[in-house]
Amino acid sequence: MLTAHQLAAKKGRVTLFENIDFELHPGQWLFLSGANGSGKTTLLRILCGLGQPERGQVLWRNAPTQIDSTPLRREMMYVGHALGLKEELSALENLRFHAQLIQSVFEMTKTQDVLASLGLRGRENLPLRVLSQGQKRRVALAKLLLYPLPLWILDEPFVALDAQGLEVLVRGIQAHLAQQGLLVYTSHQRVEIDAPGLEVSLSP
Amino acid sequence: MSVFWSLVQRDLLLALRRRTEVLTGLFFMVIVASLFPLAIGPEMDFLRRMAPGILWIGALLSSLLSLPRLFEADYLDGTLEQLVLLPSNLALNVGAKMTSHWLLSGLPLVVLAPLLGLQFDLSADLALSLMLTLLMGTPILTSLGAIGAALTLGVRGGSVLLSLLVLPLMTPVLVFGAGALEAQMGGLGIQAHLSLLLAMMLASVALSPLACAMAVRLSLE
Q1: Strands across the sheet with A151-155, in order?
Q2: How near does any CA of chain A get to the CA of B61, in Å?
Q3: Counting one residue from A and one from B, how many pairs have CB atoms under 8 Å apart?
Q4: CA-CA distance, A170 to A192, in Å (whole number)?
Q5: Helix B19-40 vs helix B107-117: crossing angle, to nearest 10
Q6: Which one of A54, A70, A77, A86 would you mutate to disrupt binding with B, by most B Cβ within 10 Å of its Cβ?
Q7: Quick check: A199 pLDDT over 70?
Q8: pLDDT tens column, A120-139
Q9: Tens digits of per-residue pLDDT, A32-44?
Q10: Residues in A touching B218 (Cβ below 8 Å)
Q11: CA-CA distance, A152 to A147, in Å (whole number)?
Q12: Given B3, B17, B78, which is nearest A101 (Cβ)?
């Protein structure tokens, strides 16, 4: 369970948001909405521990998270604006190193299957820099699907995806939530997710 | 520990894919060391006396040149964020990045230096001492520089600031590294200089990953 308690953040002297409270239970999604510059990314970074709030607290499984909270980091996956992939490496290499870094097992056939389901068949061994923006995003999504961790924090996950990619992602999200996963995401696109959820609106 | 080696392995593979970046620092060292004998002229005694200083300055500037590269690419493509969010120890992971950076920019200097020393008529004994001092000195340059590199991440004109930050810290390494060779030429032992270099190396290699991890976290916030 992810809980935010009275969160507030400032950028310089400007207060981005304050009094953000929510309680997210397993199987639920949380949609952060708000205009450009309203602090959506800042809030996501605070939730995953990359940033610190001005006031307030984030709790993961009822324990407060600090800036380097190992329990949270062990169970969370964050995909931000920068995808965290190496352009010089192929999709397979990127996923293999990811598996090694999170100390998980890399399974070649399973990885190829997931990449194929994301429409990347035949491009597994190409360096990422020759792929399109949407295809790179699909490789980042393959990380989520291959190594399922309970909490997904996604910053604009639908950007650059075509209709088919969007459908694969939404199906992945629904499967994740059905397995008692949690999801926090921001988006400027309204996407129907067939699961219970809540919306937090950040207004400047 | 397996995470440590995976990171080293990844960085080495990446370096293999963009070789020019790695070679820039080495070429710089070769050019500096080759231009001096050409400009100064072929007076053996003079060159021999200049050798330690020039080779050490070359090594220092070459490692300074490669420092901004240490975290920059990872910072830009988001892999540094992912590194910070890994459940394993960040100081150890940053240490892995420093290790691979040293393997790519420090170790080649150690191997290259005696060859460049030939242009200064460096004797075999002195060439060996040069290698030894560089072997102890370059890890200090990398680990001190890494703190600066992490602190100046995302700062405009960061590389200039980086040089200003770390050069004062690096000068003792230069003094003792080149000083060891001077001492040997003068017929004194190099033991004292080497001991000091080794002490500095151990301290900086042990402590700087901790400072560096903090700096990385700070610049990502």
Answers
A1: A76-79, A151-155, A182-186, A29-34, A197-202
A2: 27
A3: 71
A4: 8
A5: 20
A6: A86
A7: yes
A8: 888 989 999 999 999 999 99
A9: 998 888 889 999 9
A10: none
A11: 11
A12: B3
Q: Indicate yes or no: CB of A102 within 8 angstroms of CB of B87.
A: yes
Instruction: State chain A's mean pLDDT as an integer.
Output: 89
Binary contact (A86, B6; C-beta < 8 A) = no
**Chain A residues close to B84, C-beta within 8 Å:** 50, 68
Chain B residue with CA closest to A78: the answer is B82
> Does the pLDDT of residue B176 top 70, yes or no?
yes
Whether B184 contacts B129, CB under 8 Å:
yes
**For A134-171, how does the pLDDT look when each residue is reduced to its tens digit (9 = 90+)?**
999 999 999 999 998 999 999 999 888 888 888 989 99
Residue-by-residue DSSP string for A42-81: HHHHHHHTSS--SEEEEEETTEE--TT-HHHHHTEEEE-S
Q: Is A19 helix (H, G, I), strand (E, B) or coil?
A: strand
CA nearest B19 in A: which residue?
A88
Q: Which structural domains are found in chain A, ordered by start?
A: 1-75+151-156+182-204 (3.40.50.300)
pTM: 0.91
Of B46-50, B106-110, B137-141, the poorest mean pLDDT is in B46-50
- Alpha helix (H) residue ranges in chain B: 2-17, 19-40, 44-66, 69-77, 79-84, 90-105, 107-117, 124-151, 158-185, 191-220
Q: Which residues of chain A does B88 touch, with a Cβ-Cβ cutoff of 8 Å?
A: 101, 103
For residue A186, what are its two tokens? 């921001």
**CB neighbours of residue A203 within 10 Å:** 9
Contacts of B6 in chain A (CB under 8 A): 97, 100-101
